[in-house]
Amino acid sequence: MSSNSREAILAAAKRMAQAHGYNGLNFRDLSDEVGIKSASIYYHFPSKADLGAAVARRYWEDTASALESMLAETPDPARCLGRYPEVFRKALAMGNRMCLCSFMAAEYDDLPEAVKREVQAFADVNVAWLRKLLSAAAVVNAGGSEQRARAIFAAVAGAQLIARSHSDIALYDSLIEAYRAAGLMPA
Amino acid sequence: MSSNSREAILAAAKRMAQAHGYNGLNFRDLSDEVGIKSASIYYHFPSKADLGAAVARRYWEDTASALESMLAETPDPARCLGRYPEVFRKALAMGNRMCLCSFMAAEYDDLPEAVKREVQAFADVNVAWLRKLLSAAAVVNAGGSEQRARAIFAAVAGAQLIARSHSDIALYDSLIEAYRAAGLMPA
DNA sequence: ACACCTCTACCTATCAGGTGGTAGGCAAAG
DNA sequence: CTTTGCCTACCACCTGATAGGTAGAGGTGT
After folding, report:
1. What is the domain range of residue B156?
2. Is the CA virtual torsion B141, B147, B148, B149 positive or negative?
3. For residue B33, is it within any domain?
4. What share of chain B is helix, strand, coil (3-state, %, to 5)?
5. What part of B 122-181 touches A (C-beta under 8 Å)?
6. Does B184 reach chain A within 8 Å, measured CB to CB?
7. Are B172 and B160 in contact (CB under 8 A)?
8. Cβ A161–B154 below 8 Å, yes or no?
9. Which residues of chain A have pLDDT under 70?
10. Which of A61, A70, A88, B147 has a CA that sits 20 to 30 A from residue A39's CA?
11. What is the total count of domains within chain A?
12. What CATH number corresponds to the domain at position A69?
C-alpha cells in the first residue's frame, strides 16, 4: 500500500526543482507542500542526492513514455517530429517552469554524481527519439541524423530558457516557429 | 585611488556566478578568492542583490563591446554573423562555465528585481546586434530579422547549456555546425 | 615640525535565519 | 511483537547582513 507519500514527495519535488533548480530545492518547503514534516522525507529518501536522482529519473521516464504516446497518436514521423516542442511547452504553461533537466544542466558542476547520470539519461532519451524519427522521416541523411537530433534538442531547450526569462510563452512559440522557418525542424 | 578591490570582486563574482549561478554565489567563497574578509565586500556593494546587478551589468557591457570589436574586425555582416558563436564559446573554454545570463535566466523567478533588469538587457544587446547584422547581410527580409535574431540567440544559448552538461566543448562546436547546416545561421 | 582631523578600506565579532541530516519516540496495522 | 510511517527535538554548518573598531593616508591649522 501507500508509498502514497513517496509519490507526493516526488511530484512536489519535481515542481519545485523545475522552478528553483536542485540547489533551490529544500526539505522545509518541500515537506510543507506535501503536508508532512521535513524529517519524514528521510524515511522515503536517504538523502537529498537520492531524492534528486529519483526525481530526475522519474522525469525522463515520464518524458520517454510521453514521447512514445505521441508517436502512437501521430504515427507519421514528420508530423510527430513537428509536435516535439509540445513536450517542453508544458513546463512553461505550468507556472513558467523549466524542463527539470535543463535547469540541472546549468547546475551540472555542483550536482551529485547520481543526479548527473539521470540528467544525461534525459538528454539521451530525447536525442534517441528525435534521431529515430528523423531517420524515419528522411529529413536528413542517416549520417547527419544524430547531429540534427542533438541540434533540435539544444535549440528547443534554449527557446524554453529564453522564454522563461521573459515570462512569455508566446515567445517560445515564436522561437519554435522561427526554427521551422529556418529549416531546423519540420512543421 | 584603487577601487582595485571592487574590480577584483566583480571579476571573481562573475566567474563564480558563471559556474554556480546567482544562488550559488556566496560571500565567503567570494571573499576568499579575492583575498579579503566577507564583511569587507559590503564596503563596495551594499547587498548581494546590488553585487549581482553590478556583475550582470558589467557582463552585458563587456559583451556589447566585444561584439562591436568583432564587427570592427570583421566588417562583412554575414562573415561577422558567423563569428557570433565565438562569444559564447569562451565561457565553455574557461572551465566549462556558462553565460552568466543564461544561468540567471534559469534562476529568473528567484532573482532580485535589479538583477532581472540586467539579465533582460543582456538579451536585448545580443538580439539587437544580431538583428542589425541580419538586416545588413540580407539573410532574411526586414520583417523576419527580429524573429530570426531571437532564434539564433536562443539556439546558441541552448547549445552552450547542452555542451556544459556534457562537459564537452566539441559538442558545442558540433551543435553550431548543425545549426549552420540547417540554415539557421550563416557560416 | 607637530598635533589634529577626516576619510578610506579594511578588520573582528556577532547575529538571526535557513540548510541537510540524525536520534529516538510513538501510534497504528499486520 | 514487529514493521510501517510518521513525529518531536535537536545538531552543526552555512547564509547574508550588521555593529563597531582600527591602521594608514592625506590634508589643515598653529
Report:
1. 55-182
2. positive
3. no
4. 80, 0, 20
5. 123, 144, 147-148, 150-151, 153-159, 161-162, 164-167, 171, 174-175, 177-179, 181
6. yes
7. yes
8. yes
9. 1-3, 139-143
10. A61
11. 1
12. 1.10.357.10
- pLDDT tens readout for residues B114-164: 999 999 999 999 999 999 999 998 766 656 889 999 999 999 999 999 999
What is the distance in angstroms measured between the alpha-carbon CA of B56 and the sugar C1' of D19? Answer: 30
Is the C-alpha dihedral spanning A95, A101, A102, A105 positive or negative? positive
- Reported ipTM: the value is 0.94
Question: Does at least one atom of strand D sit less than 7 Å from the CB of B72?
Answer: no
In this complex, the answer to whether residue A37 has its CB under 7 A from any atom of chain D, a nucleic strand, is: yes
Residue with cell 544562488: B23
Distance A43 CA to D10 C1' (A): 18
**Residue A132 located in a structural domain:** yes
What b/e sequence results for B63-92 when a residue is b if at least 16 CB atoms lie within 10 Å of its CB, and e otherwise? bbeebeebbeeeeebbebbbebbebbbebb
Does B29 map to a domain?
no
Q: Please tell me the distance from the alpha carbon of residue B13 to that of residue B18, in angstroms, as a whole number.
A: 8
Residue A41 domain-assigned (yes or no): no
